[in-house]
Amino acid sequence: MKALSTRTEQFTDSVIRRMTRISDLHGAINLSQGFPDFDPPKEIVDRLSQVAKEGPHQYAITFGAANFREALAAKQKHFSGMDVNPDKEIVITCGSTEAMMAAMMSICNPGDQVVIFSPFYENYGADTILTGAVPIYVPLKPPTFEFDVDELENAIRKPGVKALILCNPSNPCGKVFTKEEMQLIAGLAVKYDIYVITDEVYEHILYQPNEHVYMAAFPGMKERTIVCSSLSKTYSITGWRLGYAIASEEIIERIKKVHDFLTVGAAAPLMEAAVVGLKFGDDYYENLQHHYTHMRNLFLDGLNEIGLNYTKPQGAYYVLLDISEFGYKDDNEFCEKLAEKVGVGAVPGSSFFREDVNHLIRFHFAKKDETLIAALDRLADIKKKMKQ
Ligand SMILES: Cc1ncc(COP(=O)(O)O)c(C=O)c1O
């Protein structure tokens, strides 16, 4: 048989999904893959049962149902201040995952270079390989996850650089880029004429006093920013696969073409039901932040009691735990043993870093109180069970 594609040889199956399988094998509480175990807002679910009876059940227009795009443009205006034309500057995709892939395919030619902060969400590695682009990594240095401005500028100024991917708030490190950092990145993007592809899926999951700053809203940035985001995290509907790209008409025209041939469109009944969520008032987003702050505090207080070290997240719903004290060279081995001996699933931090970082593991805490308490009960024995 002839060899399969070299493209798909260059990346492995998702480490997060592998850790989920290992967690299941050992009956561990799975704090590896980031999805909530609580229900989405009732209004959205109720609307879905109505829609099940009334439709739509056929293809929506490929770039997304008109009422969904209109509601999204209004929400984007409300939070970012940006005027977005719902007919020309939005494509509704199957999750932000598709938006990012379509954005990369629309912006990059094979051989173009893309700057990515490390640690990074693992999809970006595969996205660059599948588009033939070459990643240049700029470290966000643990434990504070700040970057060196010269290092960033040296990366961006390289002649083949076409774009920078910015995950803000960041998975896995929970960093929320400050206004000053965003301004600096925007300035470099304009100076060296590159695009910025943002991943803003955690834009509404923030811990005070941190605030989400929209890259596209900086002067000169709307035309060179491709916003990728989704409803997955904001409305706790990761399984609905509703995401979007927002960009200038010229870029969106390209993204529409890629999207049309990749997936045709997002699910019509789910778009219809989710419009209710896009129209929620500010109180929904305030409650969401309260809920996440509660979960974060519950989990971090528990880690404090056990005496574990971590970097406090500013946004998103992950925490990186420092496992140096356990004496493992390999964080993969640590996570496998943790699932087996302690009964809690985590993701080895090395899967997010380009640099040789093996002393961090990632937990996520978008879980019901009882799930977090049960996980903390198990983790209480971690020092006894996991020391080498
Ligand atoms: C940073 C980041 N981007 C994108 C995604 C995927 O989002 P979606 O469900 O919209 O495809 C995730 C999911 O965990 C994520 O953490």
Verbal overview:
The chain has a seven-stranded mixed sheet with strand order 2-8-7-6-5-3-4, sandwiched between helices. Strand 9 and strand 10 form a beta hairpin. It has 388 residues and is of the alpha/beta class. The chain folds into two domains: 138 residues, Aspartate Aminotransferase, domain 1; 239 residues, Aspartate Aminotransferase, domain 2 (3-Layer(aba) Sandwich). It is built from 13 helices and 13 strands. Helix 3 runs parallel beside helix 9 and helix 10 runs parallel beside helix 12. The site of pyridoxal-5'-phosphate (PLP) has 13 residues, from helix 4.
Number of helices: 13
Global mean pLDDT: 97
Query: What is the number of strand segments?
Result: 13
The residue ranges in which pLDDT falls below 50 over 5 or more consecutive positions are: none
